[in-house]
Design brief:
Length: 107
């Protein structure tokens, strides 16, 4: 099955989002695990991108709202839910998007 993702709204948005992706690709503490491709040769296309911030959970890709097809993921250590919740509360003043997933439905 093929899926189509439309372009971002304009070049300013494209450049801003691409800056975050470039940062992740060039930062040794971060890993782009999906996507990361961009193309503005005909429209402003950015592949949906997932960034693993496992060793750098306070990086700007976790702290700042990107407003584009970019998802930053931090897999917290088992048993450290309280630490993960604290990290979410202290990492950004905005908290416009975010979620904590756990296997235990009673967490």
């Amino acid at each position: 099955m093929d899926t189509f993702m439309s372009a971002v709204i304009d070049e300013k948005s494209f450049d801003r989002i691409k800056h975050y992706i470039d940062h992740a690709q060039n930062c040794k503490e971060l890993k782009v695990i999906a996507g990361g491709k961009t193309d503005k040769s005909k429209g402003y296309f950015i592949d949906p991108t997932i960034i693993d911030v496992a060793t750098h959970a306070t990086d700007k890709v976790m702290r700042e709202e990107i407003f584009g097809p970019v998802l930053s993921v931090y897999v917290y250590p088992a048993g450290d839910l309280a630490k993960a919740v604290k990290l979410v509360g202290e990492t950004t003043p905005f908290a416009l998007t975010g979620a904590i997933f756990a296997e235990d439905e009673y967490v």
